[in-house]
């Protein structure tokens, strides 16, 4: 009982502080309760206190509302003068700006106080006024015949009513077992000789606290409280007036488009002059810009402005850069959005954002919309698929309607970028929606050269950027995309800064190219003498095969310095920009790839795992020759490649055909292995020379190879090599 009284006294003291004077008098009176009385009187007093608190709070709210109305009437004529007097130094200190809580705040406070006192009362109802042990109760009261009535509550608490004495009228204690308690009561009464008809009556009662009734309402109360909290936060942010940006506004604007409007004067600094290596694609995009800048030039001839274009190609080829250049050159509003921004967890949000995007674009027409990674929402819809994504399909359907629905005279052009045009829905790709399909492929030698000129211009070089230097770097990086070239130039500058160089030189670019291709040099990875010798003979086998094969790519460098995660050595070649590959060229590439494994077989008693990547390349080439390219006389000109579908339930050939395919793949690889073994057996001395030199120098260049084993017996057919890297013609 005393513990419950302390909790309630503390709660009352806490509540008294923020309440107004109207609440103080009832509180002071309620505190003068006879706390020393029994439990029943205490419960009555607590109920009285709770009722007084609620009545006082209600009276306070009424008084507060009345005062607010009075203040509004009084401040009507003085409002303008008070605002001028306060000026900029006035800072509201409360939610309503005058330092006092609002009506809603008092409502929340009173609700919380009521719940708090209900919980305290329920807890105190279970506490005992004067806790005793059963032995004390038996000795002091039961054996002396002072007990008039016994009440067992919830089979665990006992309240005994005493015969009128100077002691408290009720005593309470806990019991562990009802049966044991009844037995003890009967035993004592038998000992006292009390007749059965005069024995102490024992009643049983089961009670539930207020808290048990409140438990089902807790989720509802939490929801209501959370809603009131959000509304209160919105009111605080808005200062009691209009505004936006709160949580409620974010919920209401979930269907709005997230497209970003670019300001070509401040946001976009890329122009078409900064785009190189894709001249044909740039011309197509520049024509779109011309359409929007001068539409009458085309409309007077009856031409219609194309409604859209798909920019497709491998990663890093400049699709997004082309869109940025379009935004910088167009001179019209440019809206940019990612395809993934249309997809949300809420159903219907994607379609709503598509509608809002095109609605905004029509208001700004002439306008350009750029959707990056459109395959996130434009993927092909599948028939009889076990997968389902109604939200994604609804977004795609809305996009189809918007692109085919707006009038061509609106002068709204849609550009979209993707790495996987084959995954897009056919309805999206048809003329009338995306009229043009612009492919940005990896640049050729001249394209790489033009890209290098752009990225070399901000670097501090020892000499001005020349066609020869840019061409040399372009020749060293076959297959590089625009993003790879930009990364290579940046890596070269970082390497030069790491070595405290005054200029970025050719050696820095060569190191950067090697890092991009095969990874960072790992000189801390120390190999044992046996491993180093194995790697040297392995790389020497590759180098000799490439040196004496007609269709092999020119060798530039061979090294046994570990690089990256797994490469213990590597050989750098210079492949040509060719678009057709013959069967003999495939065979020579397979022989060169097997050179490392065959060299280990010829020079050591055992083989290692160093040829794992080479064997994978050989297997892929052999499978491509047989399954895709029809380079097998037994199988003929038939393609056996399985279709790339999500659910493949059968193979497009029989088991007998599969056995024949397997035999042909083995035949091609075995033939390449035999030819490689014959070549390296014939050139075993050259292999030893190159391997021993690698063990000494660790890195060999083309000039070192010519010095050791003489020039290649074939004329170089690589135009890039002959123009920029041949020792007789190369220059700075």
Question: SSE layout and pairings?
Answer:
Layout: H1 2-16, H2 21-30, H3 39-75, H4 79-86, H5 103-125, E1 131-132, H6 134-142, E2 147-153, E3 157-162, E4 170-174, H7 178-192, E5 202-205, H8 210-214, H9 218-238, H10 247-252, E6 260-262, H11 279-293, H12 296-299, E7 308-312, H13 319-330, E8 334-338, H14 349-364, E9 367-372, H15 390-405, E10 412-418, H16 426-429, E11 436-439, H17 445-456, H18 467-476, H19 482-498, H20 506-518, H21 529-548, E12 555-559, E13 570-573, H22 583-603, H23 612-628, H24 655-682, H25 684-697, E14 699-701, H26 702-709, H27 719-725
Parallel strand pairs: 1-4, 2-5, 7-10, 7-11, 8-9, 9-10
Antiparallel strand pairs: 2-3, 3-4, 6-8, 12-13, 12-14
Helix pairs in contact: 1-5, 2-3, 3-5, 11-13, 14-15, 17-18, 17-19, 18-27, 19-20, 21-22, 21-25, 22-23, 22-24, 23-24
Family: In the N-terminal section; belongs to the AAA ATPase family.
InterPro entries: AAA+_ATPase, AAA_lid_3, ATP-dep_Zn_Metalloprotease, ATPase_AAA_core, ATPase_AAA_CS, FtsH, P-loop_NTPase, Pept_M41_FtsH_extracell
Protein name: AAA+ ATPase domain-containing protein
């Amino acid at each position: 009982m005393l513990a419950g009284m302390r909790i309630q006294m503390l709660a009352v003291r806490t509540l008294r502080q923020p309440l107004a004077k109207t609440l103080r008098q009832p509180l002071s009176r309620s505190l003068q309760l006879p706390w020393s009385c029994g439990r029943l009187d205490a419960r009555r007093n607590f109920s009285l206190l709770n009722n007084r608190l609620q009545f006082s709070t209600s009276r306070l709210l009424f008084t507060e509302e009345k005062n607010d109305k009075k203040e509004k009437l009084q401040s009507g004529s003085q409002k303008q003068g008070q605002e001028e007097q306060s000026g900029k130094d006035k800072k509201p200190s409360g939610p309503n700006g005058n330092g006092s809580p609002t009506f809603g705040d008092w409502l929340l406070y009173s609700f919380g106080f009521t719940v708090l006192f209900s919980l305290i009362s329920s807890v105190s109802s279970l506490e005992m006024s004067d806790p005793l042990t059963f032995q004390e109760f038996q000795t002091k009261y039961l054996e002396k015949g002072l007990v008039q009535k016994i009440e067992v509550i919830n089979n665990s608490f006992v309240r005994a009513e005493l015969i009128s004495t100077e002691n408290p009228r009720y005593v309470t204690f806990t019991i562990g077992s009802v049966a044991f308690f009844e037995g003890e009561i009967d035993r004592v009464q038998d000992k006292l000789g009390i007749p059965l008809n005069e024995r102490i009556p024992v009643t049983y009662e089961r009670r539930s606290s207020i808290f048990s009734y409140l438990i089902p309402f807790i989720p509802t109360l939490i929801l209501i409280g959370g809603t009131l909290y959000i509304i209160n936060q919105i009111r605080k942010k808005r200062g009691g007036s209009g505004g936006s940006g709160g949580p409620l506004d974010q919920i209401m604007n979930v269907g709005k488009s997230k497209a970003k409007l670019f300001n070509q004067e401040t946001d976009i600094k890329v122009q078409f002059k900064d785009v190189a290596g894709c001249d044909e694609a740039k011309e197509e995009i520049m024509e779109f810009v011309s359409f929007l800048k001068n539409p009458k030039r085309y409309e007077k001839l009856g031409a219609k402005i194309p409604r859209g274009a798909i920019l497709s190609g491998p990663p890093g080829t400049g699709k997004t850069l082309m869109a940025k250049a379009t935004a910088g050159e167009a001179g019209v509003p440019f809206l940019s959005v990612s395809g993934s921004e249309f997809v949300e967890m809420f159903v219907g949000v994607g379609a709503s954002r598509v509608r809002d995007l095109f609605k905004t674009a029509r208001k700004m027409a002439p306008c350009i919309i750029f959707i990056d990674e459109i395959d996130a929402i434009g993927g092909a819809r599948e028939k009889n698929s076990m997968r389902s994504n109604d939200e994604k399909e609804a977004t795609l359907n809305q996009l189809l309607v918007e692109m085919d629905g707006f009038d061509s005279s609106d002068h709204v052009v849609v550009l979209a970028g993707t790495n996987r045009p084959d995954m897009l829905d056919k309805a999206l790709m048809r003329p009338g929606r995306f009229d043009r399909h612009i492919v940005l492929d990896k640049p050729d030698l001249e394209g790489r050269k033009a890209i290098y000129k752009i990225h070399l211009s901000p670097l501090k070089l020892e000499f001005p950027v020349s066609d020869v230097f840019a061409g040399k770097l372009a020749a060293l990086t076959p297959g590089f995309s625009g993003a790879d070239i930009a990364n290579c130039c940046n890596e070269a500058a970082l390497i030069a800064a790491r070595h405290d160089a005054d200029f970025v030189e050719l050696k820095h670019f060569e190191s950067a190219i090697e890092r991009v291709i095969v990874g960072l040099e790992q000189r801390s990875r120390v190999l044992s003498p046996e491993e180093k010798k194995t790697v040297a003979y392995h790389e020497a086998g590759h180098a000799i095969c490439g040196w004496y094969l007609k269709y092999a790519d020119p060798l530039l460098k061979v090294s046994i310095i570990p690089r990256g995660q797994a490469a213990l050595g590597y050989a750098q070649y210079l492949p040509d920009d060719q678009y057709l590959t013959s069967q003999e060229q495939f065979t020579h590439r397979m022989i060169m790839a097997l050179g490392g494994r065959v060299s280990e077989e010829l020079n050591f008693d055992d083989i290692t795992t160093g040829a794992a990547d080479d064997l994978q390349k050989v297997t892929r080439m052999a499978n491509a020759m047989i399954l895709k390219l029809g380079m097998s006389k037994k199988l003929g000109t038939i393609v056996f490649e399985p279709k790339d579908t999500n659910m493949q339930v059968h193979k497009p050939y029989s088991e007998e055909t599969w056995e024949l395919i397997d035999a042909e793949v083995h035949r091609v690889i075995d033939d390449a292995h035999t030819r490689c073994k014959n070549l390296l057996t014939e050139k075993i001395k050259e292999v030893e020379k190159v391997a021993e030199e690698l063990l000494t120098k660790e890195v060999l260049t083309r000039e070192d190879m010519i010095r050791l084993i003489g020039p290649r017996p074939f004329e170089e057919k690589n135009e890039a090599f002959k123009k920029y890297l041949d020792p007789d013609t190369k220059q700075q």
